[in-house]
Amino acid sequence: MIPVLMVDDEQLIIEILDQVLKDVGFRVTQASNGKESMSSIAS
């Protein structure tokens, strides 16, 4: 699985893209802002 970090402040967009990307084989991590995305990268 290829990891993808998805960052968007619109929850509906995150939910839709999360499902689409998972359906085609990506491993998705979600963040709703820059601070969350940097925390995800650091961990």
What does the model show?
The chain has 43 residues and is α+β, with helices and mostly antiparallel strands. The protein has one domain (2-42). 51% of the residues lie in helices and 28% in strands. The chain contains two helices and two strands. The chain has helices spanning 11-23, 34-42, and strands spanning 2-7, 26-31. A two-stranded parallel sheet has the order 1-2. Helix 1 (11-23) links the parallel strand 1 and strand 2. The two termini are 18 Å apart. The mean pLDDT is 96.
Could you outline the blueprint of secondary structure elements for this entry?
Layout (H helix, E strand, L loop, with lengths): L1 E6 L3 H13 L2 E6 L2 H9 L1
Parallel strand pairs: 1-2
Q: Give the strand line-up of the largest sheet.
A: 1-2
Number of domains: 1
Q: Tell me the span between the first and last alpha carbons.
A: 18 Å
Structural class: alpha+beta
Query: What oligomeric state do the depicted chains represent?
Result: single chain
> In percent, how helical is the residue content?
40-55%
Determine the mean pLDDT.
96
For the largest beta-sheet, the strand count, sense and barrel status come to: 2 strands, parallel
Unreliable runs = none
Number of strands: 2
Please provide the ordered H/E string of secondary-structure elements.
EHEH
Whole-angstrom Rg: 10 Å
- The outline comes out as flat
How much strand content do the residues show?
A: 25-35%
